[in-house]
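Below is how a single chain appears once it has passed through the pipeline. First comes the sequence as given, then the structure the pipeline wrote out for it. We keep one example in the README because the format questions we get most often are answered faster by looking than by reading.
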Amino acid sequence: MLRSMTGYARVVGGEKGDSHVWEIRAVNHRYLETVLHLPETHLGLEGEIRQRVGQVIKRGRVEIWLRQESRGEASLQVDSGLLQGLRHAAGQAAELWGTPLPLPSALDLLRWPGVLQAPTADLSAEQLLALLDAALAELQATRAREGEALASILRHKLDNMGEILTALQRQLPLIETRLRERLDRRLGELRQQVEPARWEQELVFYLHRQDVAEEMERLATHLQEFRQTLERDEPVGRRLDFLVQECNREANTLGSKAGDQQVSQAAIELKVLIEQIREQIQNVE
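Resulting structure:
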């Protein structure tokens, strides 16, 4: 099953006015890169989170947020103990400095980290990680749906390439005949001065240099391998990237050896399709 590297998931857990929210966003990346945005109270979960992400995702940049949200009539709370501590610290500072410090406003105090707190939802680490697993499953489902759409596009491009090769294969005898006739016209007078055996030898050598059958066969083999790779139930993005490089190499050789306009046009069409495929697989895991 082909999977895209892009996706989004959001899972909410909790009861009444308080909840925890896992939000995951994934985009394409050469390797797996996990970026976590966790509250300070949950930094201890970082190692377990990275391990669980690595078990299901192999490539892509994955950003994960854990947020605490309040719903309904939930009210904010003030940490009175922290305020008392701040007041005591301010008094000590004023005594050491030898002059009264300006009194902060209530708004200034509320801005102090940790003074204003949302009610905590009573979720254990196990419950939070279970919610994370649900979010990862949702993300994978999204990536799988996008991957199937990508696979459909890629199969269509491969079919188009196969049709070009099949049509060109049927025309190879006619193309060879045209090459012979062209050489005869260009070197007609010279042919009378060369022994027939030598002339035929040179003609065979010329036609061999223009022969594109081997490149077409290798390209057809790559297309078959590409289709089989699309059916694998594993990350195949790097393998597909390698196959695209091989296809592009054969198409370039096909174009460079082309001694006929039909072959040259086929090579151009193949390279256009290969480039379109290359763009699509940049998003494949």
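Residues 61 and 199 are 63 Å apart (CA to CA).

See the next section for the split statistics.
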